[in-house]
Amino acid sequence: MRIATLLLAALLLLPGCSSGQWGWYVVNPATASGMTNLKFLLGGVYYTVLLTLTGILISVVVGLLVALPGLSKIRPLRVASRGYVEAVRAVPILVLILWVYYGLPQLTGFAISVFWAGVIALALSDSAFEAEIFRAGIQSIGKGQYEAAHTISLGYGATMRYVILPQAIRRILPALGNQLVYMLKMSSLVSVIGMQELTRKANELVVVEYRPLEIYTVLVLEYLVLILVVSAGVRWLERRMRADERG
Amino acid sequence: MYGNETKTIIRFENVSKFFGDFQVLRNIDFEIRIQERIVVCGPSGSGKSTLIRCINGLENHQHGNLVVDGVTLDGSSQTVNRIRGKIGMVFQGFNLFPHLTVIQNLTLGPMRARKMKAKEALELGMHYLERVHIPEQASKYPRELSGGQQQRVAIARSLCMEPKIMLFDEPTSALDAEMINEVLEVMVELAQSGMTMVCVTHEMGFAREVADRIAFMDAGEIVECSPPNKFFTAPDSERCQQFLDKILHHEDD
Lengths: 247, 253
Ligand SMILES: Nc1ncnc2c1ncn2[C@@H]1O[C@H](COP(=O)(O)OP(=O)(O)OP(=O)(O)O)[C@@H](O)[C@H]1O
Ligand SMILES: [Mg+2]
Fold this sequence. Notes:
The structure holds two protein chains of two kinds. Chain A is an all-alpha fold.
């Protein structure tokens, strides 16, 4: 939060040393119209957060489902997993969004809502990275843990669920946190298909008010605050899990 | 049910195993009877770990027959699944689950594999934790315990599966000298309770005290297998004698 305040202060001081003219009235909460505009901009938080959380949830699940066969002894499963990761990673997110929203309905015959098109594109795209993170995390667990699980008769599912994944997830938590931040930022791309999230709201307001500098500055701050909240949350979770192991 | 045949719980018949081109086990013929305490020793790389890891399916052999508690192990997961729950194993490096407390380490198998209720599993866990003399450590995490305590937790974790056979792979090799005895003490008690045990160890005092037979392995073969008296005083093989000279001399240092 301190960083956010500092940055805000810096931005407010900028007009003094530049030839540009700041027109903060456009988002000044003290005036009625400024307040309305500000509320309009902040109205995008809901969908940005919803897109991000739904997207990360799906991508973590898909990522895990892709990572597990990638670690199998059976070669075709490994090849399939590898192929998925390589293919999905090669598509730019923006292209995937356009493809899912405009292309997919032609293929399936069903129209898809803007929200779900965005979620699917974000989740698919991110799932390739999640799969790589899970793979590395699971591979970092020594074979002694599998052997101990073997001797207490745990099957594959129970071994993963109670022994391997809890340890792997603790190790990859920082990386998962990064992906969450990344997802939050990439959700701005869903604005191109009309999703009423933060970026779309800002674009729409710019068209009406024509104060891009102030409005986009607010937008930058909105993302900054959200991301600082996410980072704090991830760090809290890391601390809690570490405390967990100490008892 | 009389006769030696029914009393045999582990039988190696001409078992061989390869890692690639390298033969780790050479035509092993070996029978272990119920309640027998076997100590396996031998130089590093002789195949001791591999031998006992074949018994609970952590490794698969390629030739010959291996029959454990009436099940012929053929490398399939079905046969391994039938026997692995009956065979406890204690590792050199403990292999405790670091993210679980001591009692959670003990109850995981009973709850998830034996499908016991949490309360029952807890009672079972506490029972075995008392048997290894550390009931007061139940809610700690493994990293908070000494090596000796961790190894005793590992023993208790295996016992919670109420196994018929216990395998030990150099259970005290990773321990500081002052902690070796507390682990050996627990193992002696276990031996006295009538557990079938196969222990890879170089603790010759322990071998002398509890072993029914001591097997000496070298280069993938069981070169010598005899009761402690004979083993220490009049081993048949030259290689075994040399090995004994080396480690017994070392113990005197
Ligand atoms: N997974 C494996 N792949 C290839 N070779 C292996 C593997 N495991 C063991 N070996 C080899 O097989 C031989 C026997 O190994 P094993 O671990 O059974 O010996 P050991 O008698 O237990 O030795 P130590 O006293 O060092 O534990 C060694 O030469 C080892 O290098
Ligand atoms: Mg070994």
